[in-house]
Amino acid sequence: xxxxxxxxxxxxxxxxxxxxxxxxxxxxxxxxxxxxxxxxxxxxxxxxxxxxxxxxxxxxxxxxxxxxxxxxxxxxxxxxxxxxxxxxxxxxxxxxxxxxxxxxxxxxxxxxxxxxxxxxxxxxxxxxxxxxxxxxxxxxxxxxxxxxxxxxxxxxxxxxxxxxxxxxxxxxxxxxxxxxxxxxxxxxxxxxxxxxxxxxxxxxxxxxxxxxxxxxxxxxxxxxxxx
Length: 227
Hints:
By secondary structure, this protein is an alpha/beta fold. It has one domain (2-214): Nucleotidyltransferase, domain 5, CATH 3.30.420. The chain has 9 helices and 6 strands. It has helices spanning 35-48, 56-61, 71-83, 102-106, 108-123, 125-130, 145-162, 178-196, 200-205, and strands at 2-11, 23-31, 88-96, 132-139, 166-171, 209-214. Strands 5-4-1-2-3-6 form a 6-stranded mixed β-sheet, with helices on both faces. Helix 7 (145-162) links the parallel strand 4 (132-139) and strand 5. 33% of the residues are buried.
C-alpha cells in the first residue's frame, strides 16, 4: 500500500501592493519515500553539530532554513539534495503579483486554487506510476486558523476533483519535518531565481525541479508598480 506525500512551501507574502514582494511562489516536493529525503538530511545535521560547524542559526533553532542558514551550510544541504537517489520530483508555480487580477487580492482561496491546480497535475503523475492508495499533503507551516481554513478549502476541492484515493492534509512546523526543510530549500532556490535573478542555488537543483513557471506570464496588464 503506497502513499504519495506532497510537501508544500510558500515564498513571498500575500501583500498585493507596491510594498509587497514582487512574487509569490508555491513549491511542492512529491515522493512515495519521504525517509529517503529525511534520512540523509538528518545524518548531515548530526555531522554539522561538532565544533559548531552548523553555524549560529542551527545552534539556536536546530533545523535547516535556507534563508537564514550560512552559505557553508547551504552548500552542504544542496549537495545532499542533488545526490538523493530516491525517486521524487519538485514543482514550483510562480505568480508575479502585480499581474494578478484584483479579484485574487480579496479571494486568496481562488489564487491558491489556481496555483495549486497547476503544480498538482504534475505531482499527481506519480499516482499512476506508483499505484498509490493514499495522498498526504503537508504544509510547511502551522499558520493561523484563518490561513489553515483557506488552504484546506482550496486544496481539498482540488484533490477531490483529481483523485479517488483517500487523502489527509496536515500543517507541520518545518523544524520538526526534514522533508519540509528540503522543500524550503527548493522553494528558496526558485524564489531567488525569480526575485533576484540569482541562478547559483537554482542551477544546483534544477534537475530535480520538473516544472517552474509564472502562471501570469501571458498577462499584459500590471495593476500597480513596485517601489
